[in-house]
């Protein structure tokens, strides 16, 4: 994948140290945009630094001729009344981006000659579907639904996890209820453990379905996904929550947050790549390059880092405490992705093709497919964009010579196209545009080490109280993003940003409630 064309905003200032205000936020993905907008709304001076020429990160977009492609994320959670994005936009006095609820949220083809599973938005319709598809499993689904309701109510009370101070602990204890304490008994268990507990461990078809769905949201299959996280991932598509399709592109979410940041006096500084963080006079100096190769140095009181934690060793150098460095060195490797971006005449697609589908496909792996809808701004009238992605180990794509890399890339693209022919009937002559991105492309696009496309994975050993904390051992240095509780997805990273902003502002005696 190559960089898309777009407007560049580099910010102004001299090459010396600029003292613009107390907070620098690193990374203008959804987590960074959210944190920067919230802090600006609270009255702080905020500089949001982004290495790319546009915001959005893995939830950004790029253009190829008449086509707009969502880079990574293709759906949004939390836009319903009471959802995290609805709450954020109300607090920021910002109109949310136009969106329609996904119904079905996804259609899952297990490639077994049986009808695909349709994940309906209506809870009763979804109950009838799953009972038809997976007879005898209702006890499992009801347990997941109870855990989800308990988790959701807990999350809406804005807990801090994992706690690293007395204030954090107070926020956590204040969010607990008797049902929360009961559900906490499942903290060390997996979704596969819930299956066994409910007598469904023998149902291999159900297990394949769960592995496909959970891999999307947790980067782990059922036997490695924390039960408390997985229960919500499996239930979030139904009312009163839901998944949403943005009109225009995923970039609309970023644009709305950009507008909020500007409204409250914050500054987005594109093409500013942070290279080094230094402790100085009780605060921080952020050093890097702007516009490609011009050095900059920004003085601030606090730094909010929404970059992957694998970046911290290089950014902090000797300032990183030895024990914390050792923990970072033993982090689990997130996944990379292969993503096929294409466009076809809409007439070649099956009638009423849903926006999102999954196919249990052998090579290079199960496909998650997103199809644009007529008039949603992603393709001309009568055409559709088709995006197919599959998780892959990231590191093996680096270190290959060019011939081997191109051969491996071509092989993967051919295999994914074959899966799309099976799923949607797209033939080789139907493509109006087609290209494949590998972890190398994502590394260039997002700046993430090895082209990682998500956080640390929601294994019980890395979830909730056992994960990385937003509060670090370094004064004035905070973490956000998809490696921080509650984890992956646009809603998850926005919740992580709300949590860290509450912590940061509490240290200044300024409570944040939205």
- Rounded to an integer in angstroms, the radius of gyration calculated over CA atoms is 22 Å
Helices, by number, come to: 15
Percent helix: 25-40%
- End-to-end span in angstroms? 38 Å
CATH class of the largest domain: Alpha Beta
Give the topology, please.
Blueprint: E1 17-18, E2 23-26, H1 30-41, E3 46-50, E4 61-64, E5 67-70, E6 76-77, H2 84-91, E7 99-101, E8 106-109, E9 117-119, H3 123-133, H4 138-156, H5 166-175, H6 178-183, H7 191-197, H8 204-218, H9 227-235, E10 243-246, H10 251-263, E11 267-270, E12 272-280, E13 283-290, E14 294-300, E15 302-305, H11 312-316, H12 322-329, E16 336-345, E17 356-359, E18 367-371, E19 383-392, H13 402-424, E20 433-437, H14 439-446, E21 477-479, H15 489-507
Parallel strand pairs: 1-14, 2-3, 2-15, 3-11, 8-17, 15-21
Antiparallel strand pairs: 4-5, 6-10, 7-10, 8-9, 12-13, 13-14, 16-19, 16-20, 17-18, 18-19
Helix pairs in contact: 1-10, 1-15, 4-9, 7-9, 8-9
Key features of this structure:
seven-stranded mixed β-sheet; disordered N terminus; 20% strand; alpha/beta; 3 domains; 514 residues; 15 helices; FAD/NAD(P)-binding domain; five-stranded parallel β-sheet; single chain
What does this structure look like?
The protein is α/β, with parallel strands linked by helices and 514 residues long. The chain folds into three domains: 17-61 and 71-98 and 248-332 and 454-507, FAD/NAD(P)-binding domain, CATH 3.50.50; 128-239, no CATH class; 336-451, no CATH class. The chain is 34% helix and 20% strand. The chain is built from 15 helices and 21 strands. The chain has helices at residues 30-41, 84-91, 123-133, 138-156, 166-175, 178-183, 191-197, 204-218, 227-235, 251-263, 312-316, 322-329, 402-424, 439-446, 489-507, and strands spanning 17-18, 23-26, 46-50, 61-64, 67-70, 76-77, 99-101, 106-109, 117-119, 243-246, 267-270, 272-280, 283-290, 294-300, 302-305, 336-345, 356-359, 367-371, 383-392, 433-437, 477-479. Strands 9-8-17-18-19-16-20 form a seven-stranded mixed β-sheet, with helices on both faces. Strands 11-3-2-15-21 form a five-stranded parallel β-sheet, covered by helices on one side. A hairpin with a 7-residue loop joins strand 8 and strand 9. Helix 1 (30-41) packs parallel to helix 10, helix 4 crosses helix 9 (227-235) and helix 7 packs across helix 9 (227-235). The two termini are 38 Å apart. 50% of the residues are buried.
